[in-house]
Write a structure and sequence with these properties.
There is one protein chain. By secondary structure, the protein is mainly alpha-helical. The chain folds into 4 domains: 30 residues; 75 residues, Endolytic murein transglycosylase (Dna Ligase, domain 1, 2-Layer Sandwich); 61 residues, no CATH class; 148 residues, no CATH class. The protein is built from 14 helices and 6 strands. A hairpin with a 7-residue loop joins β5 and β6. α5 packs antiparallel against α6 and α11 crosses α13. The chain is elongated, with a radius of gyration of 30 Å. It comes from Persicitalea jodogahamensis. Pfam families: YceG (PF02618). Belongs to the transglycosylase MltG family.
Amino acid sequence: MSRNLKVGIFITLAVLTTTFTFYFWQIFKTPNLQLEADRSFALLIPENATYESVVDTLKKNQVINDEISFRFVAKLLKYPERVKAGRYLIKPDATNYTVVQKLREGNQDAVRLTFNNIRLKSELIGRIGPRFEFGEQKFREALGDPALAQKYGFDTTTIVSMFLPNTYDIYWNVSPERFLDRMHSEYQKFWTDERKAKAKAINLTPEEVSILASIVEEEQARKPDERPRVAGMYINRLQAGMPLQADPTVKFALGDFAIKRILTAQLMTPSPYNTYRNTGLPPGPIRLADQVSLDAVLNYEKHDYTYMCAKADLSGYHAFAENYADHLANARLYQAELNRLQIMR
């Protein structure tokens, strides 16, 4: 073999090696995505999804540029046989290799779930259900299952007390039961022995504390520092056997939370939640009480007040009274201010 032929063969092999090396480097190590620089894509893979359905989702959402190179890497890493359900965030700078490896290993990205300011069970279902694979219907069924509620120590009305408003990281493909397990775990963490002892000292169960805290929070959503005083006023009424006469329970009974001025006729709305018609606590919370409100009940301010109404200066605070005569005087001032501002409802 001549020297020139050997050189030619060497150069040809070198070029081919360089070409294939560059190609492999490109399909493995360079981005193959069409995402905007500041936008990630949440790939949702349901249970029993196939490899083809995953590729189809990426194509339909215009996530990958070169399907052929993606499939090549996927097959090389044996991903078609190892599809795992879950939620996966694909970042704009991801390569074929990093995407396939993430999916193949099942390295999920949790859903960051935040919920607060929820009054109705239907709101809770609508806020949480769509964020997870189980959806609204299965979540509704879980919350309406008496046996499941009893497992956690609640009934289907009071089970919403188990949901403490906060931010949680939870996997998208969690089952409704596992989701409820997590909520119950967080609930148990909150209810330390010290908190349970404080509840017992005021003759309330943790569930009853949640119900009272929901009323306290509805009464005083704007000024959290006043909640212990509000809680003390309601505890005084409970211990005296007086009806709570909490306006938020009337709004809840009416299903109208935009009311600014409750009329006398509305106070007689027939409902087990209406604390003007019923003595004691309602059958369930009128909102998801946050931890500040729960602690406000457990650490309530000790005083002799049994009445309160909003202050006439509309500051968001309340005027408290120990007797009905003083309360009426405070109420007249507030009503006069509402009349002046022409707030009739």
